[in-house]
Amino acid sequence: MACSWSGISPAAPGETIRMSVVVWFKRDLRLHDHAALAAGCREAQREGVALLCLYVYEPSIIHAPDFDACHLVFISQCLHELRRNLNAIGGRLLMRVGEMPDVLEHLGRELSAAGLAPIRSLHSHEETGNDRTFQRDRRVARWCAAHGVRWSEHVQNGVVRRLASRDGWAAMWDERMSAPIIDAPADLAAVTVRVLDDGELQTPEAFNLGPGKPKAQPGGEAAAHRVLDSFLETRGVNYQRDMSSPVEGWNGCSRLSPHLAYGSISIKVAHQRTTERQREVEHLALRGEIDPRWKASLKSFQARLHWHCHFMQKLESEPRIEFGNVNRAYDGLRPESIDDPESVRRFEAWKSGRTGYPMIDACMRCLHATGWINFRMRAMLASFTSYQLWLHWPEPAAYLARQFIDYEPGIHYPQFQMQSGVTGINTIRIYSPAKQARDQDPTGAFIRRWVPQLATVPDDYLAEPHLMPPLLRQMHGVRLAEPGTDPCELEGEVYPWPVVDHQAAYREAKEQVFAWRSRASAKREAVQVFLKHGSRRHNRRG
DNA sequence: CGCAAATTTAG
DNA sequence: TAAATTTGC
User: Fold this and answer.
1) Is the pLDDT of residue A2 over 80?
2) A346-CA/B7-C1' distance, Å
3) Nucleotides of B under 7 A from a protein CB
4) What is the mean pLDDT of chain A?
5) Angle formed by the axes of helices A358-370 and A433-440, to 10°?
6) Distance A419 CA to B7 C1' (A)
7) Residue A425 and residue A404: Cα distance in Å, rounded?
8) Which pLDDT score, from 0 to 100, does residue A449 have?
9) Crossing angle (nearest 10°) for helices A341-351 and A358-370
């Protein structure tokens, strides 16, 4: 097969048009186990046409309220490596900036200017994104229909399109996860076009986004495999215990989440590699040659890979979860928008890590710097803004989406709603920040690291420094703000007074939520919510 | 009926 | 959120 494509010209009358195949990378920034790429390669080789690998930086998605510079940095790191890996096998990666339909339109012109044939098909993965990507996909579908381009969307995880019922979903997940791993393409030289412009990797500045995070986890397919390997070989031994702790979790959690979110590794590969390791562990355990904690830890990790798709399925099946309560009977429980001065004061304090609750503030400041915190602490942050601060979830959820480097829309919104008690099918959990501090950070290492204003507070008072008698504060050089001071007006060394009183807010929130929960409409609606989204793995109802 | 407003839906 | 569909006058 010819390596140069300059010989292919637009079809003469009566001749079949030989057109190009586009593989559109979205949240699947890898070469291994990539169904869309494999299908695109197969088609290009079979038909003897060009293969174009494409990534598009889309301003309308980048400027959405849930998007942050840290996401863009991670994406560009993945693309940097993807481009290198494609180059190594004779392929290339085209990068463009613009709205997808415009880019396709322009790409068509680029192809024709180079004397090449137009686009005949588009391959991508099935995406469960936010509303912006959903609407974008609809526009792309319309564009494809209007231009006679066939768009194939390929399955890449356990999320099922047009799912009729949750019954049997778990079995479908198992089946998908045990499908064969798809090899990375070996040689793309024969189907690669060289005349088009590569385009460039983008930085946050190009979109006026401000800098990424100083201690962000790095992206890329190699990094993803290193992280998985080290977790399965060594780091994961205490997973079951470490995952609750913001300190131990840093190393003891898998840290695969941003890679799963941007697809620098597939969940199927993660699952199958874990299964292999489980077999190995079983084997070694017979001879007493392995730490017995591995067994439960790996099982626990597998369960979380399952839950990953379980939550994404909720948003896939009911996209309005991004905007409104899953259980409509809870509409009006909290004020719809954060506009009164007291709510604004609370929201600002929470966002900036200045609530006066050390564990909340340490977690938020850790997120500001790293983009990661363990699951339990995320639940605590969502619970605190919902119950103690009594703020409706959408704006806080968008804020945390920007702080999480591993932001996955399908997990984020259902989780956040669950933590704010508006699903009706889950137990109400109101975390006490002081109890979490004492349980999860008994030495105070985490709080002292992220809240230096409290570095000199004695252990006994670290969870609730406002309880320190003034004399003791003076002795230890701890500067606390006076009650009622706006936390956002404080100088750097002064730690805020609690923005709300935990006990009073806790009592009030609990009373409110249970009052709404006992309403007949909430119960009736909850049954429907369970039928649509509830897990069928345990305690099947009815 | 025709139209606008309100409500529901959708990968 | 935007588009499609139903409701209300």
Assistant:
1) no
2) 33
3) 9-11
4) 93
5) 70
6) 27
7) 26
8) 98
9) 60
Smallest CA–C1' separation from A132, nucleotide: C1
Task: Identify the residue whose tokens are 């809870």.
Answer: A330
Asked whether residue A17 carries a pLDDT value surpassing 50, the answer given is no
Position A403 scores a pLDDT of 98
Distance from CA(A539) to C1'(B9), angstroms, rounded = 30
- Check if residue A131 sits with its Cβ under 7 angstroms from strand C: yes
State whether residue A177 is helix, strand or coil.
Answer: helix
Laid out side by side, the sheet with A93-97 consists of A93-97, A51-57, A20-25, A119-125, A150-154
CA of A410 to C1' of B9 (A): 18
Pairing relationship of beta strands A20-25 and A51-57 according to DSSP bridges:
parallel
Q: Is the CB of A138 under 7 A from strand C?
A: yes
Shortest CA–C1' contact from A162: which nucleotide?
B11
Q: Which of residues 241-270 of A touch strand C (CB under 7 A)?
A: none
Read off the pLDDT of each residue in A175-204 and give the average, rounded to a whole number: 96
Q: pTM of the entire structure?
A: 0.94
Q: How many other C-beta atoms can be found within 10 angstroms of the C-beta atom of residue A369?
A: 13
Shortest CA to C1' contact from A394: nucleotide: C1
- Number of other CB atoms surrounding residue A168 within 10 Å: 12
